[in-house]
Every structure is written in structure tokens, then in C-alpha cells.
Design goal:
single chain; about 475 residues; alpha/beta; Elongation Factor Tu (Ef-tu), domain 3; Immunoglobulin-like; 10 helices; elongated
């Protein structure tokens, strides 16, 4: 697959995107440009109708079968466009050599069509295993009939038996965590809050065989309908690992080609990510959340972070074949619940690591590439340059120099099959300095220059294949053959 030959994924949206229901048409026109900068796959936002209709970012899922085709939740179009526009964009991107990954949200549903009256018991938000009262009668939004779709594609209607919990009782107008009658929280989920099965909305019960059957049917329908090349699974730490594993295997069985899958398991503990990969038997990659937080802490430590350890306890280091690396995303951008935005001065350092190392599958964020107008954030300096360097230069054996608390680096020795490939990366979180690094005897006598423009010196490679590469404090420099 593309990801194995210096591929780059791009997350093509940010939370506050003002796209005027035109994102599918826009990305369709940008495929050629993005391909030029080395993008080989695009992760598109959720394409189906959510509770907010044309204003829904995509995670408040209402109808998975409505890709902007039916008049539901106040609109036919989703925030990003219509079904026909979505399908057309996928085809055009694929014709440009770009794979398309769909963002799928299976954990919960929102915006039900009818109330149901049932028994439920309250649970403690901080310890979901602890019930806090006696069983009571509640009125909850758990009946989904999708009248606007009128049973097209599927006649399955959801009711309270297909959910395990919900957070609102319409009878009393009370917001609380309710576990529905005769239900138990799934056990094979993240252990935060005692049990992190419940996240939001009407929490889907994957112990119900009707639910499993319908989800499998939908997954196959989605692949057949859209022709996407992969799935990005939202909120997998709240979903039973066995279900995700079996879902992937089932839908893959309906394909002739490959299906790339990556999960969002939002946890900075590397052991929890490794455990999930083991439980799902390697069926999907995971976003390298620990690496993101290493970047965040390094960027906010006033030069006191130990840069020699910036890769420690990350998927990039411990299981790189399953690591999708990223700097920021729609959840970490300013204003979001998981806000942990990497400041602009550190962006070049972070992207130099994820884009130019041989390990991992890097994901570039829309908000870094295009900026975030909502917060006055400009496009990241030198991001396109780094993407082109990955595409043209980042090949061959890798030599690491993570041997100093402030100034670290690595080199790629290049390959004959890629003309003038090879590079030297040097990064500093505090001081000006230099590092003697090996780029290969084949470059002896050659001049290397900083492609990022942060240093103006020409570095001459000595007879042993080493160069004394220079960096300005708080920046990155990427040296390539002149």
C-alpha cells in the first residue's frame, strides 16, 4: 500500500471548518495539488447525517445510511455536501493516486425519532461500575425509525434494547448516566472511570446480536457504495475490542483489495495501546497519542524537556508498523475537549520527526496545512517543504543521534533509486548548536544546505561521510544535497 512507500495521510478537515456544504467539491479539485506534495491518502470527515443536520461536524451520528441523500434533521446535504458529491470526490481522488479513508463512528447514536419508557439505574460518572440509586422509570430518546429514508438500504429500526446507556431522562429533564434495564457495561473497554464503555448519546450495545448483524451489513454496504480504501474508527477505547476485530475481518472478507484501518484510542499510556493492538490481533493501526503528548510536553517545558527521550514510550518506537503519527488533529485544536495544541515554534520539530523518519505512517492535519481561520491560526511555515522532502529525499538507512537533552538529530543515507536522496535532520528545543552526523561516504566533498532556510551555511561532507550540522535554538534544520 501507499503508506509503505513514503506515503502521507492527510486529515482533510478541522472542527470549525466553514465549508458552506462544499467540502466534497473542494477536495475533489485539490487532489492533483495534494498528490504533488506527497499526499497518498486522505481521511475525510464523517459523511453521514448527524443530529445537527447540515451543521453537524459528524460525530453526533443519526443515520449511517444517509450520506447526504435524504431530507432528515432539517437538510438533505450534510455539512460537507451531498452523497453524489461525496462519491464523485472519492473517485477523483483515487484517480489522482490518493486513497480515501472514511471516518466511521459506531460507538453511539443521537437524535432519535421517538421516546421510549423503560427502567434504568443511575451510575456514578467517575466510577461507572457503581450504581447510585434504585431502578427507576425513565423516558429516553432511543427509538430510531429514520422516516426520511423510509427503510431504503435497510429496514432495521433501533430501539432501547440495542443500547446500554444514555445521559438524559426526558421525564425529569435530568442529565445523568443511566444504565438501561438488564444491561451491563461492556468489559473489554478502557478502564478509565472504572469502565469507559459510555461516551455520549445512546451508547450502542455490541453484546446484542441484532446490533452486530446490522453493523456488519452496514459496513459491507458502505464499502460497496463508496469504494473507499480504508476506515478511521472513532473512539475505539469505548468499544469492545472483539467487535472491532470481527467487524474489520467481516468487511474485509467482502473485498478483493486491501482495507487500511486505523483506530482512535485516546490514551497517552503506551501499554494500553499495545494491549489494544494485541486484543484486536493486529487488525488495525492506532494513532500515536503518546507521541503527540511527548511533543506537547516538550513544546511547553521552556527547553527543560529531555529531547533524547522524545520518542520513548510511543508506538513509533515500540510498534512502528502499527503507528499512525500526527502532530495535531480536530480534537487537540484550540477550543476542543482534548485541546493540547502544539505551539507554532515547535511544529517544524514535530513534523520533521513524523515526516522524515522511516518508521510510522504520518498524518498531516488540515489545520496545519491550511490554517484555522476560527482562531486566527496561519498555515504552518515549511510544512509543504517538509512534505516534499519526505517525498523526494527521505529514503535509505536511518542513523539516530538522540544523545543530548536539547539537541538531537538523525540522518537518512539515501537510495540509488531516488536521485539525490538522503538528508540530515537536527532539532533543538533551546540552544544554538551543532552535531557531527554521518550521511554516507558517497557524499564526501558534497555540499548540504538547510532546505527549511533556518540556517544559511553550506555544510561540506568530510572524507568519512560526516558533516558538522548546525541548528538555531528552538528550530529544526533539514540538510539536503545542494
Amino acid at each position: 500500500m501507499n503508506k509503505e512507500i513514503n506515503g502521507v495521510m492527510m486529515q482533510y478537515f478541522e472542527w470549525y471548518l466553514n465549508c458552506n456544504k462544499n467540502l466534497w467539491n473542494t477536495v475533489k479539485k485539490r487532489g492533483e495539488e495534494l498528490s504533488k506534495f506527497g499526499v497518498t491518502a486522505i481521511w475525510l470527515p464523517p459523511a453521514y447525517k448527524g443530529i445537527g443536520g447540515e451543521n453537524e461536524v459528524g460525530y453526533g451520528v443519526y443515520d449511517l445510511y444517509d450520506l447526504g441523500e435524504f431530507d432528515q434533521k432539517g437538510s438533505i446535504s450534510t455539512k460537507y455536501g451531498t452523497k453524489d458529491e461525496y462519491l464523485s470526490a472519492i473517485i477523483e481522488l483515487q484517480q489522482q493516486g490518493i486513497e480515501v479513508y472514511a471516518d466511521i463512528v459506531l460507538n453511539h447514536k443521537m437524535g432519535a425519532d421517538k421516546l421510549q419508557t423503560i427502567k434504568a439505574v443511575k451510575c456514578d460518572w467517575e466510577n461507572r461500575e457503581q450504581e447510585t440509586g434504585a431502578e427507576e422509570t425513565v423516558e429516553v430518546w432511543t427509538k430510531f425509525t429514520f422516516p426520511g429514508r423510509n427503510h431504503k438500504y435497510s429496514d432495521f429500526e433501533w430501539n432501547w434494547t440495542h443500547f446500554s446507556g444514555i445521559d438524559y431522562n426526558s421525564r425529569t429533564k435530568e442529565v445523568a448516566l443511566y444504565k438501561l434495564k438488564n444491561k451491563t457495561w461492556q468489559m473489554d473497554v478502557d478502564t478509565e472511570h472504572g469502565n469507559f464503555d459510555y461516551l455520549m448519546g445512546a451508547d450502542i450495545d455490541f453484546d446484542n446480536p441484532e446490533v452486530v448483524e446490522e453493523c456488519m451489513k452496514w459496513g459491507k454496504w458502505y464499502l460497496e457504495t463508496t469504494g473507499v480504501n480504508g476506515f478511521r474508527f472513532d473512539a475505539v477505547k469505548h468499544i469492545e475490542a472483539d467487535f472491532i476485530k470481527n467487524f474489520i475481518r467481516e468487511v474485509r472478507s467482502s473485498l478483493k483489495g486491501e482495507l487500511f484501518c486505523v483506530g482512535e484510542y485516546w490514551n497517552a499510556n503506551i501499554n494500553d495501546l499495545k494491549r489494544y493492538i494485541e486484543k484486536t490481533e493486529g487488525e488495525l493501526s492506532l494513532f500515536d497519542v503518546p507521541l503527540h503528548y511527548n511533543f506537547y510536553h516538550a513544546a511547553n517545558s521552556n527547553g527543560e524537556y529531555d529531547m533524547a527521550r522524545i520518542l520513548d514510550n510511543t508506538l513509533l518506537k515500540e510498534n512502528w508498523a502499527k503507528a499512525v503519527t500526527f502532530v495535531d488533529n480536530h480534537d487537540t485544536q484550540p477550543g476542543q475537549a482534548l485541546a493540547s495544541w502544539i505551539p507554532s515554534w515547535f511544529k517544524e520539530i514535530a513534523y520533521s520527526i513524523i515526516l522524515l523518519r522511516k518508521e510510522g505512517y504520518p498524518c498531516v492535519f488540515y489545520g496545519d496545512y491550511y490554517g484555522i481561520s476560527h482562531d486566527g491560526i496561519e498555515p504552518m511555515k515549511n510544512l509543504k517543504t517538509l512534505m516534499l522532502i519526505r517525498k523526494d529525499k527521505a529514503y535509505g538507512e536511518q542513523v539516530d543521534y538522540f544523545d543530548d537533552c536539547n539537541i538531537v538529530g538523525f540522518t537518512r543515507l539515501g537510495e540509488e533509486s531516488h536521485y539525490k536522496s538522503g538528508l540530515a535532520v537536527i532539532l533543538s528545543d533551546k540552544y544554538d548548536g551543532s552535531k557531527r552526523m554521518y550521511v554516507g561516504k558517497k557524499f564526501s566533498g558534497e555540499k548540504f544546505v538547510d532546505a527549511l532556510g533556518n540556517r544559511e551555511e553550506e555544510i561540506i561532507i568530510d572524507g568519512e561521510g560526516f558533516g558538522n550540522f548546525i541548528v538555531t535554538g528552538g528550530t529544526a534544520s533539514v540538510y539536503v544535497k545542494l
